[in-house]
Amino acid sequence: MKLEGFSHPRSIEEALAVLAGAPGEARPLAGGTAVVPMADRRARVLVDLSRAGLDTVVLEGDTLRLGATATLDAVARGKAVTDAGLDALVDAAGAAASRRLRRQITLGGNLVGLYPWSDPVPALVVLGAVVRVRSAAGQRDVPIDDFVARHPSKVLQPGELVTEIRVPRAAARTGSAFLKFARSAVDYALCGAAARLRLDGDVVREARVAVGALRPLPMRLAAAEQALVGKAPDPATLVAAAAAGAAEAEVSADFRASVEYRREVCGVLVRRVLETAARRAAGRSA
């Protein structure tokens, strides 16, 4: 990287002004775990966001507000996240990388960079997050499903910056969970799975299931969701839903594992996250 400038904005407005003043050449820097090792040769100015006040982790009413530069460690250990009942996000943020890296990796950077191993993203998908994007011209809110339907680099316009991720508080009788499988605790995931279930009496009223690390982008498993709604979350139903989801999942192979192996892992993880989500939903009465 042949850098010509390094900016340390003290506010989001100042950061946006710098980005607008160097279109195509200014790059935001959050945790730096991706920008630095995977250097963008087009970058001429780095905009350090660490002092721009984007590290909020706060529960306001029924919405959890997560600043884009909040670290994964802050999310995993944040009381506001636990109070909001967002167990899948706690699971996912706490499972990413090593503790040292979790103290550096930011939630916004992990989302915008969106690698197959971006562990928190499937959790954000099942939790129905909304991504707030700002530019010097204004702001817009993008549902997470739309934000990751293609790579975020193709969703964000020049000069736009993700400033916040908003997640609704879990309703009563709602539970969620995330699990990943990797060769070691700190390795990139071979598969990650997240689920959120809302119960109505003894049956599933709403289900969201998503997987990551199987292909470049995360994906919802509609077949698994449809197999759950209107049914009691008993072992047979969860096994059938997991099998339907694994069969539906789009899987890519790499040097770590074959398609067949990843699909088998996917089925196991989906069943396990469904079991955990159902148990948590049954225990959340208020």
Main sheet? 5 strands, antiparallel
Main β-sheet, spatial strand arrangement: 4-5-8-6-7
**Structural class by helix and strand composition:** alpha+beta
Record field, number of beta strands: 12
Tell me the fraction of residues in β-strands, as a range: 25-35%
Gyration radius, rounded: 19 Å
3D structure, described in words:
The radius of gyration is 19 Å and the shape is globular. It folds into three domains: 5-48, Uridine Diphospho-n-acetylenolpyruvylglucosamine Reductase, domain 2, CATH 3.30.43; 57-168, 2-Layer Sandwich (Uridine Diphospho-n-acetylenolpyruvylglucosamine Reductase, domain 3); 174-283, CO dehydrogenase flavoprotein, C-terminal domain (Enolase-like, domain 1). It contains twelve helices and twelve strands. β6 and β7 form a beta hairpin. α10 (222-228) runs antiparallel to α11. The strands form three sheets. The chain has a five-stranded antiparallel sheet. Strands 9-10-11-12 form a four-stranded antiparallel sheet, with helices on both faces. 36% of the residues lie in helices and 26% in strands. The protein has helices spanning 12-21, 72-77, 79-83, 87-95, 99-102, 107-113, 120-126, 144-147, 152-155, 222-228, 235-248, 259-283, and strands spanning 5-7, 26-29, 45-48, 57-60, 63-67, 130-135, 138-143, 161-168, 174-182, 189-200, 203-212, 219-220. The N and C termini lie far apart (52 Å). The protein has 286 residues and is α+β, with helices and mostly antiparallel strands.
Task: Looking at this protein, list some descriptive labels.
Uridine Diphospho-n-acetylenolpyruvylglucosamine Reductase, domain 3, alpha+beta, Uridine Diphospho-n-acetylenolpyruvylglucosamine Reductase, domain 2, Enolase-like, domain 1, 4-stranded antiparallel β-sheet, 5-stranded antiparallel β-sheet, 36% helix, single chain, 3 domains, 286 residues, 26% strand
